[in-house]
Amino acid sequence: MQSVVAFQSFHNPKICVKRVFLEGWGGMTDANSVRNVSRLKFSYRPHIDGLRAIAVLGVVLFHFGLEELPGGFIGVDIFFVISGFLISKSIYKEVESRRFSFYSFYERRARRILPAFIVVSLSTALAGYFILFPQELAELSKSLIAATLFSGNIHFYATSDYFSPGASQTPLLHLWSLGVEEQFYIVFPALVLAVHKWWPRAMASVIVGLIVASVVASQIMLSLSPSASFYLLPFRAFEILIGSWLALPRRTFPSGNLARVAAYGGLALICGGMLFITAKFPFPGLLALVPCVGTALVIWGCESTVGSVSRVMGSGPMKFFGKISYSLYLVHWPIAVFAIYIFRDINRWEYLIYGVASSTILAWLSYRYIEQPVRLRKDFWFPSRLIATSGCALAAFLVVFSGINAAQGFPGRVVGSVNDVLAYLKYGGSEEMFQKGTCFMNPEQTAKDYKADKCLPKGRPSVILWGNSHISQFHWGLRAPLAKRGYELGQITSSGCPPIIGLEVVARPNCGAFNDFAIAEIMKTKPDLLVIGGVWNSSPDDMAVFDKTLSRLHAQNIKVVVLGPPALFKRPVPIIIADRLTKGIDLASDDDLERSLIFSRDEALAKHFAGSSMATYVSILNTVCKDKQCPLSYFGIPLHFDIVHLTKEGSVYYGEALADKIFPTD
Predict the structure, then answer these.
(1) Are residues 348 and 490 located together in one domain of the fold?
(2) Where is the signal peptide (predicted)?
(3) Number of domains in the chain
(4) Which one, 155, 281, 432, 438, has the greatest CB density within 10 A?
């Protein structure tokens, strides 16, 4: 149920103000001819609601753990294109007719976005007060402040790092896309006004140029900072701009066979993307063009022709989910996060079915009683009242959420011993334990930053640890046991970089070069023992690549020990302990352990290395997790500070046990 943060949310910018989109459109001509958009008059676009339904259902099902839909997260890209098409169309029309007003534009945005946003944000904060522990509530308040300022994407880009607790446990992570979109519409209307005034014939060229620049920048940034490419506007702008390009004045739309081919081709791209694109692929970049172009083709093929695709997209269920899609987007992710906290024993299918059902019900209630009244009752919610009320609510949010953060989530809500455990969520010992920035490279660092004179052993006999954080975390705990045995210990490690030569890691562009550097240093140092470790994938293809690295080491007569996968939990261990202390649950229970995943991989790896001449396999799980129960704490101190990484005490606990396996006594 851990979702891949960095690939998991979207914003549905559904625009339903008829005056903006429909006013001034001429009558429809012959259905079999090519039409000019300026002459169309649609009271309802079934294909738009259908696209919204596909997008929102894809993302919701993905977030609730439907493994059969690995690319459901591309719903964000679908909605960005829809947003660009609908909103840009209204901007172009009003600018050309000299009726554009920034006040009116942002009043319409506020009417569409803010009512449900305010209610859901407030509800999430209230639920968080009763469900979350103080440190978590303080973190939630920070994301609420960022969301209120429509900068959630910047906040999550700045605060999400390798050692942060699972991003999937952040109830408002999904609001990053709302930030992207609103930042776009701060800039775009002014750009259209400027181009229309000074270079009116260059509008299409400017839009195309920006699309190309953004796509290229997004692809390049994937190799420099995948997180920036995912979260920040310059590298997402092309998705909205594709819709803006499609909405350009005097755009012609096809009919007949061409329209059908475009619509079906677009649907094929969207469905194929949801079925075959996975979180392992570099994204967005060029790959994001698959759902974006697919969405544009559906709109282009259906905009002037009511065909079979339009009829399917406008069917009852599609229309229903299309209408509630914005509210469904807002409510589903807090439900997905809080459900894990409340229902400890929920299984995969219960989580999926009940999660989708409850999200749908709440989304309909939000649409019916929050969105619609504010949108339709303009006699009561006239512009000045709407702006004043929304402004006061957002200002109050900033004050209240800043207070919650300043109060550190009100630690007085829980007993002192629980707060002591929760303090490990912000683990201060990781810098010293990992030797971050010196022997363990941070994500932005390269091999040039590695301090070989401080990190590699100088004497004999010697042991070197090579890999990522999952081996670096043992350095602290192995020092004393190895020193007793006469060994000098060193490490050459980097964040997120498995010790496999030739392996490209999307989230860590520096890994390839660092591993080349690492193996060169290892062969030069010639340690008496090389210990490598990570969260291994035990598939045959991955093991074949791994074996090539081991073969190179074996050819140099370097003795290798491979450590198996570490204990992996569903929630940060301090949260598990605090939850059990509060509820009086036995700490020995292993309900929160990712049991099937880690033990199946461990068994596959042990089988793979049985009888191998290239490496000796040591199972961490068999060493520490007696009867397949992995300890959470030692004398009340958490052994892990998140779902997998060890505290200093945990490193010592594991290190003592592993030293006996690495250096067995006769």
Answers:
(1) no
(2) none
(3) 2
(4) 155
Provide the pairing of β-strand 488-494 with 440-441. Answer: parallel
The Cα–Cα gap between 663 and 482 comes to: 9
pLDDT for residue 161 = 46
Give the pLDDT of residue 493: 94
Residue 553 belongs to a domain with what CATH number? 3.40.50.1110
Q: Which of 393, 413, 433 is the last residue of a domain?
A: 413
Answer whether 387's CB lies under 8 Å from 103's CB.
Answer: no
Q: Over 577-603, what HEC string results?
A: HHHHHHHCCCCCCCCCECHHHHHHHHH
User: Same domain for 256 and 331?
Assistant: yes
Residues 354, 471, single domain; the answer is no
Same domain, 466 and 375: no
Domain with 245, as residue range(s), is 5-413
Which alpha helices (DSSP H) does 150-236 contain, by range? 152-159, 176-198, 203-222, 226-231
Q: Residue 4: what pLDDT? A: 35
DSSP string, 447-474: GGG--HHHHS--SSSEEEEEESHHHHTT
> What tokens appear for 230 in the block?
């995912």
CB 585 within 8 A of CB 531: no
Same domain as 222, residue 112: yes
Side by side, the strands of the sheet bearing 529-533 are 440-441, 488-494, 462-467, 529-533, 560-563, 616-618
State the 10-residue block means of pLDDT for the chain, 666 residues long: 36 32 30 37 75 97 93 96 96 94 94 96 96 92 95 89 55 94 96 94 95 96 87 97 95 89 96 92 94 97 84 92 97 94 85 96 97 92 92 96 94 85 81 89 88 89 93 94 92 92 77 91 93 83 86 92 91 89 75 83 90 91 89 90 92 92 72
Segments of 379-487 assigned E as strands: 440-441, 462-467
- Judged on CB neighbours under 10 Å (0-12, 13-18, 19+), 622 is middle
Helices (H), 610-647: 620-624
Asked whether residue 368 falls in the same domain as residue 450, the answer is no
Please say whether the beta carbons of 325 and 14 come within 8 A: yes
pTM greater than 0.85 (yes/no): no
Gap between the Cα atoms of 214 and 229, Å rounded: 10
Distance CA 31, CA 259 (A): 11
- Contact assessment for residue 497 and residue 514, using Cβ atoms and an 8 Å cutoff: yes
- Residue 428 amino acid letter: G
- What's the CA gap between 504 and 460, in Å, rounded? 33
Whether 172 and 319 share a structural domain: yes
